[in-house]
Amino acid sequence: MGFRSQCLVPLVTIAALAAAPLAYACDSTGCLLVTRGQNGVLRKGGFSLDLSFRWLDDSRRLNGSDETDVVIRPRVDLDRRQLVPGFHNDLSGRDSGVQLDFGYGLGRKTTVYTSLPLFTHQTHDIGHGGVVTPYDIWGIGDVVIGVRQSLGKPVGGTLVGGVAGKLPTGRTSLIDPYDLKPLDPSLQPGSGSWDALFSTQYARRFAGPGLDTALSFSFQANAANDHEYQFGNEAIATLALSRAFGSFTLTAQTKYIHEARDDYRGQLVSSTGAEFVYVAGGLRYATGRSTFYSLLQAPVHTHVNETQLAPRWGFLVGVSRVF
Q1: Domains present along the chain, CATH in parentheses
Q2: How far apart (Å, rounded) are the C-alpha atoms in residues 310 and 3?
Q3: Positive or negative torsion for Cα 139, 142, 144, 145
Q4: What's the order of all strands across the beta sheet hosting 66-67?
Q5: Could you count the other beta carbons within 10 Å of the beta carbon of residue 225?
Q6: Could you check whether the bond before residue 21 is cis, i.e. omega within 30 degrees of 0?
Q7: How confident is the model at residue 156 (pLDDT cuts 50, 70, 90)?
Q8: In Å, what is the CA distance from 81 to each residue of 5, 264, 270?
Q9: pLDDT category, 185, cuts 50, 70, 90?
Q10: What's phi and psi for 137, nearest 5 deg?
Q11: Among 94, 60, 134, 100, which Cα is nearest to 309's?
Q12: Which helix (H) or strand (E) holds 266?
C-alpha cells in the first residue's frame, strides 16, 4: 500500500461542502486518502485555486487487522517479468506531498478542474535479509483532469456528479538502489496508467442547527500500465459535517475506503489491497475570498491483505481562494 493509493491515484473529489462560490478545501489527508480537487460547482466564469501540503505516517505493521513485527512483501521483478514472494521486509514509511488544484466555472452548472501533485516525497526503510536500505524518493505525481456537473436539488439539498481522468505524468522509471533494478511500482512517483475516476456528492444545509452535511461516493477504475502492472480499483464513501462559528468552521468526517488487490500480468499481488475506516477533524478560517484550513485524520479500523504497512495518522494544511 503505497503513497499513490493513499494520495496520488486517488483521487476524485469527495468531502467538504459543495456550495460555490465558496471554495471548501479538498479533504484528502495527503492525498492521504484519495481525494482530489474541491467539491461543488463554481459560478460561470469563476476561478478557484487551492494549495495544500499533506503528510502521512505509514509505519504501522499489520497482519490482517493485528499488529505484527514483520511485514514481508513480494518483489515485482519487472526485468524478469515475475513476482518474487517474500523478497523484502517493510520496516517503516513516511509520505508527504504538495498539491495544487485549479477550478473553472465553465457554465452555470459545470465546473472543470485540474489537480497537480507538484511533488511527492516518500521515505521508507526496507530490509533485504540483514541489510536495511533507506529509500528517499521524490517526484511529480499523476495529474487529474475532470469535470463536475450539478444534477439538481433533490430533497432540499444539492447533487453533484463528477468524472475525471488520471494521466500518467509521474515517473515510473526510478531504479532501486539495493539491486539496481526498476523500483517497485508501489514506490514510484507515478502509476504509469491512464485511469478513470467517478464521483457523486449530495450536500444539504440544516438551517436550524446551522449544520452542513455532505455524503459522497467515489470510484477509481485503474488500468494496467506499460509494465502490465495494475493497481487495485478503489471505492470511497464519506460523510462530512461542518458548522460555522463566525469566520471559523469546525468539520468532522468519517470515511470508508476499499482498495482491491493489485494485479501483475494476470496474477494477483500478495500484500496489496485493504479496507479502512477513518475519522477526521478539521478547522477552516475564511477571510474574504480566501480560506485557510487544516485537517487531522486517523484510522479507527484497518484490515490489510497478508502483511503490510498501514497508516497511523496524517494531516493536511492548505489555503484556497475563489476569484
Answers
A1: 3-322 (2.40.160.40)
A2: 11
A3: positive
A4: 66-67, 60-63, 307-310
A5: 19
A6: yes
A7: confident
A8: 23, 9, 16
A9: very high
A10: -115, 125
A11: 60
A12: none
Q: Which residues pair with 291 in a beta bridge?
A: 286, 320
User: What's the one-letter identity of residue 254?
Assistant: T
SS3 of the chain: helix, strand, coil, percent, to 5 = 5, 60, 35
Note whether 52 and 60 are within 8 A (CB): no
- DSSP SS3 for 252: strand
What's the pLDDT at 97?
Answer: 93
Does 174 or 12 have the greater pLDDT score?
174
Residue 296, phi then psi, degrees to nearest 5: -115, 130
What span, in angstroms and rounded, lies between the C-alpha atoms of 259 and 23? 29
**Nearest-5° Cα angle at 307, 303 to 308:** 75
Residue 42 pLDDT greater than 80, yes or no: yes
pLDDT at 138 > cutoff 50: yes
> What distance in Å separates the CA atoms of residue 58 and residue 122, rounded to the nearest whole number?
10
Cell of 161: 456528479
* CA 194/CA 57 separation, integer angstroms: 28
Distance from C-alpha of 260 to C-alpha of 253, rounded to nearest angstrom: 23
